Amino acid sequence: MFGVVFPERSFPMDASAFAQIDPLHWILDMNSLVGDAYRDVRELCVFLLPAAASSFPPGKALAVYFQPPGHPFLFCGAVHPARPSALLSLPWPDPSEEPPIPDPNPNPLQLALTSAKIGVSVEDLASLPPVADAGAEKKAERLALRVGENLFNFMQSFCGIDGSRLVVPMDILDRWFKKFQERARKDPSYLKDFAL
After folding, report:
1. Which value, in Å, is the radius of gyration of the alpha carbons in the chain?
2. Strand 160-162 relative to strand 165-167, pairing
3. Are 62 and 46 in contact (CB under 8 A)?
4. Which residues, in sequence order, are bridge partners of residue 120?
5. DSSP states of 68-123 as a string?
6. CB under 8 Å to 108, separation ≥6 — which residues?
7. Is residue 167 within 8 Å of residue 159, measured between CB atoms?
8. pLDDT single digits (tens) 77-108
9. Which partner from 33, 56, 131, 175 sits 20 to 30 angstroms from 85, CA to CA?
10. pLDDT tens digits along 14-42
11. What is the largest CA-CA distance in the chain?
12. Three-class SS of residue 26?
């Protein structure tokens, strides 16, 4: 019915890589894919297989969720015949937001909470929240903070102090932006570092 790819982390996988809970629900334990390094997996490409796209029930969608350890499943996007594939963000929480690590002799329920999961389910398209807005917002926020931090660090190297004020040269923004552009031209991965 569907396939997934974790860009730069996996080959394409079909639904058989997931544990099927019932006819409409599937779960993938991220430990089977990347062990404890689930936070390094930032994106998921999900797609309907051609045979499924033509026979998909009208008004239905394939909803995708992610579940950080100890958290509930969170919606990250959906596909349906009019949108047969999508690249979805997986905005895992910061480690500081993680629940405490369970004791060394956990019961089976605690073990279930220690691994990240991807969930897929067939649902009514009209009942789903807007697609991927939360992930896009979080990514834009991270990018803005990283660029702002870069500018601040650059400005600090040229400032003077006048009482409780920082004094910077008038052309500081132009100098910073030229340096930023030059670095991005020389190193294509430079801008990718800001988006992570």
Report:
1. 22
2. antiparallel
3. yes
4. 26, 64
5. -TTS--EEEEEEBTTB-EEEEE--PPPGGGSPPPPPSS--HHHHHHTS-EEEEEEE
6. none
7. yes
8. 999 988 899 999 888 887 665 554 444 444 34
9. 33
10. 888 999 999 999 999 988 888 778 888 88
11. 71
12. strand
**Mode of pairing for the β-strands spanning 165-167 and 117-124:** unpaired
Tokens of 82: 């009019």
Helix (H, G, I), strand (E, B) or coil at 36: coil
Q: Which residues pair with 65 in a beta bridge?
A: 75, 119
| Ramachandran area for residue 150 (φ above 0: left; ψ -120 to 50: alpha; else beta) | alpha
| Residue with the two structure tokens 């803005």 | 144
Give the containing element (helix H, strand E) for 51. helix 50-55
> 120 is written with which tokens?
């897929």
Tell me the per-residue pLDDT of 119-177, one tens digit each, with 9 for 90 and over: 999 999 988 887 544 556 667 777 788 888 888 888 878 777 777 777 888 888 888 88
Count CB atoms within 10 A of the CB of residue 60: 16
